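Hi F.,

I've been meaning to write this up properly since the lab meeting, where we talked about keeping a consistent format for the predictions we share between groups. The idea is simple: the sequence comes first, exactly as it goes in, then the structure tokens exactly as they come out, then a line or two of notes. No screenshots and no reformatting. I'm using this chain as the first example so we have something concrete to point to.
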Amino acid sequence: MTAVSSGYSFRQIALHWLVFVLVAYQWFTGDRMTDLFRAAHGGPPAAVNPGWATIHVVVGAAVLLLMVWRLGIRRSRGAPPQPEQHPALQWLASAVHVGLYLDLIGGALAGLVAWFWLPGVAGLHHLMMRPVLLVLVALHLVGALWHRFVVKDDIMTRMIRPAR
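Output, unedited:
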């Protein structure tokens, strides 16, 4: 069972934003990796420096480790309770958060498996996680903006200012 806290710790906030930056980097440089992946597994040579593969794999592994760390902290320290809102919105918020954890951990694992062991199925899975991630991030952002500008609560402040 997950604990409940009054707010997020500095470590939780820092990990959230560090993962955000690393995932944004992976998102905007991912096309280079697609070309390198195809070349590494029998496709046409890539017109991209092969060093990008190492960077992508290392950043992906970092995302995986940071997400597992975040999950561990969340299970031990907990998270602040959701604000009172319609049950459907509470369900959606929970589903989006679970989806983000699953996508980021599962996508990183699939990428590592695809690169080092099973390029076919794992590579396809890794690639298919990208549009799912886009939808989840968009829903996460819309939810944050909804709380900020419509509900006008301090939900966004929880991921900026650590709890005392």
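Notes:
The chain has four helices and no strands.
The two ends are 23 Å apart (CA to CA).

If this format works for you, I'll send the rest the same way.

G.
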